[in-house]
UniProtKB/TrEMBL annotation:
<feature type="transmembrane region" description="Helical">
    <location>
        <begin position="50"/>
        <end position="69"/>
    </location>
</feature>
<keyword id="KW-1133">Transmembrane helix</keyword>
<feature type="transmembrane region" description="Helical">
    <location>
        <begin position="106"/>
        <end position="125"/>
    </location>
</feature>
<feature type="transmembrane region" description="Helical">
    <location>
        <begin position="131"/>
        <end position="149"/>
    </location>
</feature>
<feature type="transmembrane region" description="Helical">
    <location>
        <begin position="81"/>
        <end position="99"/>
    </location>
</feature>
<protein>
    <submittedName>
        <fullName>Uncharacterized protein</fullName>
    </submittedName>
</protein>
<keyword id="KW-0812">Transmembrane</keyword>
<feature type="transmembrane region" description="Helical">
    <location>
        <begin position="13"/>
        <end position="29"/>
    </location>
</feature>
<feature type="transmembrane region" description="Helical">
    <location>
        <begin position="169"/>
        <end position="189"/>
    </location>
</feature>
<feature type="transmembrane region" description="Helical">
    <location>
        <begin position="201"/>
        <end position="222"/>
    </location>
</feature>
<keyword id="KW-0472">Membrane</keyword>
Amino acid sequence: MIEFFKLLSNREISILIWTVLFFVGLIVSSKGSFENILNVIKILFSKHFIPFYIVFGLYFTIIIIALNRITIWEFSLYKDFAYWFLTTGILLFFSANSLETYRDFTNVILTAISITIILEFIIGFYNFSLVWELILIPFVTFIALLSLVAEMKKDDRNSKLVAKFLKNLLSIIGFGILACSIYNIIVSYNDFFTLSNLKSFLLPPIFTLIFLPLIYFTVLYMKYERVFVSLNRYKFLSNTRKRKIKYAIIKYANIKFKRIEKSNKVILFNKRELQNETNIKSYIRNNIKLKTKE
């Protein structure tokens, strides 16, 4: 664990310190905050989420073991993996419901391999002293939050001007940090262009692409769960009838989002047909396969 913390940069240490101070301050300042945090933790580790965590844990453990076997993995990458998982990985998982179409997944892929990851890596590689990072992190965060609040008040002309000013200020700070980072690369390029840094740079986009198939099947599971929960509520259908309907939906909807959504509409709005149709499999097929535009 000590060796792991030695890998942290001044910026990462600063973020960690301010995050801890924020939560400590939140708990001390409000009596109900600690209980709210505990409630959030209980939700995050509820029975509904634990199977996903186990699958994700096993999935990435196998990948890391495989990379270790072929001597690609090294100890320093654990820090990069932890940072990726606590940001991109968790965000992808908890925003899975918003990934409704194949285009949404394509956008994630394009973001993962866009040129911005190069700029982010360059900016994140070179840090200021810990004192300056402790000043810079809350300052930039505060400016970003003010900009967000001002952006929300679109009808107010003064708010628009404030939002524009704050955005320009953030851009100036960003370009300043980028310029310092590029300067340091030029001065000490031997420290930057190393195999370890290349691995560190490639880890986030590669792990995002590796994670997407699992996220896809997570979304698939959620969509099927929504359909089957609706179906299971119907007491007027026998269990045998429900099983036939579920089998038909899985068979004809398969892994296609549009067909699963169509299945959900059939379950919600075609109750009489679900009960009375003599050939339920053919009915499901005609409504979710033939009538759905691919």
